[in-house]
């Protein structure tokens, strides 16, 4: 729910957007045509009317706030974010959104109050604690931020922004050893897989493939492997030159209906690179059974590549 809204920890020097992205907003009209207009014009002619139009519709109002936040309009959104808290049936979402709008506007005391109100309403959640930690972080309270982030990942060890935030804080406090100690602690939490992927990446970078493979095996042994986990695993193995392992480790677990297209693309590329034509074409057949038209066009490209491999084998 918050994946697009929450960002990993960073140091804010100003609440205003940076000048090089400040001059214009790129959007698309109802016919899909690209439209570029000055920020002030977009604010007055697009953003404000949209906020007014969606004032009583929580999902649409949330979506509008989300888009405007990504374009750097946080100070313009404080009233709308407060309105979202009033009408949204998802109080965690609305309090996190309001808190981030206030944080991005440099209003830390108000952000803290909103996030604490969210905790009183919903109880502690990973998203609320992560953003409270951002308040501490921006106040240069590294110990306070670390404590909140540790609590967040104990609630949800795979909450990406909480985990990344905690690791970043621990690296800043204790260097690489502090980062690895925190990473090992996160790996030991029940159900943790995201930290294991980060540890595996660390091992790959160090040239220790057996240690990385041990982490991957633990992730793949889970009852409900996340599609994002498979994508990350495949991408990292490819980056470090272990393309064959993408096929042998990820391939047997991947299910088109559950795990999405991105892991499939990595698998298909790995089959091409290792010339596993039969396995690649078998995967193509499984994917076509569930593919929507845009995805199907990419599958046609892979089929042509496998056909080319067939012809190369015939003429070899």
TrEMBL record:
Ranges: TPR repeats: 126-159
Q: Which UniProt keywords apply?
A: TPR repeat
Database matches in PROSITE patterns: TPR
> What is the name attached to this protein's record?
Tetratricopeptide repeat protein
Indicate whether Cytoplasm appears among the record's keywords.
Answer: no
Q: Which Pfam families match?
A: TPR_16
Cite the source lineage.
Bacteria, Pseudomonadati, Pseudomonadota, Betaproteobacteria, Burkholderiales
Q: Give the domain of life.
A: Bacteria
Q: Which InterPro entries match?
A: TPR-like_helical_dom_sf (IPR011990), TPR_rpt (IPR019734)
Is Protein biosynthesis one of the keywords UniProt gives this record? no
């Amino acid at each position: 729910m918050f994946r697009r809204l929450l960002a990993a920890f960073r140091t804010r020097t100003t609440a205003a957007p940076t000048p090089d992205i400040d001059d214009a907003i790129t959007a698309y009209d109802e016919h899909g045509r690209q439209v570029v207009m000055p920020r002030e014009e977009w604010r007055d002619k697009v953003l404000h009317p949209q906020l007014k139009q969606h004032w009583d519709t929580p999902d649409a109002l949330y979506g509008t706030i989300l888009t405007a936040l990504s374009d750097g309009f946080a100070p313009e959104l404080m009233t709308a974010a407060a309105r979202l808290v009033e009408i949204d049936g998802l109080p965690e979402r609305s309090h996190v959104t309001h808190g981030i709008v206030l944080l991005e506007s440099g209003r830390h005391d108000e952000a803290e109050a909103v996030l604490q109100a969210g905790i009183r309403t919903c109880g502690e959640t990973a998203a609320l604690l992560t953003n409270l930690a951002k308040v501490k972080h921006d106040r240069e309270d590294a110990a306070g931020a670390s404590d909140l982030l540790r609590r967040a990942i104990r609630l949800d060890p795979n909450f990406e922004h909480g985990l990344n935030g905690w690791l970043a804080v621990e690296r800043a406090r204790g260097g690489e050893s502090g980062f690895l100690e925190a990473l090992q602690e996160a790996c030991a939490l029940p159900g943790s897989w995201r930290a294991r992927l980060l540890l595996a990446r660390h091992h790959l970078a160090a040239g220790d493939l057996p240690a990385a493979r041990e982490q991957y095996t633990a992730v793949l042994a889970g009852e409900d492997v996340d599609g994002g986990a498979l994508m990350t695993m495949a991408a990292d193995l490819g980056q470090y030159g272990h393309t064959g392992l993408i096929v042998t480790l990820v391939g047997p677990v991947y299910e088109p209906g559950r795990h999405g297209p991105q892991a499939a693309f990595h698998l298909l590329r790995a089959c091409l690179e290792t010339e596993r034509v039969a396995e690649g074409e078998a995967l193509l057949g499984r994917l076509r059974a569930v593919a929507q038209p845009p995805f199907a066009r990419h599958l046609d490209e892979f089929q042509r590549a496998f056909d080319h491999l067939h012809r190369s084998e015939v003429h070899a």
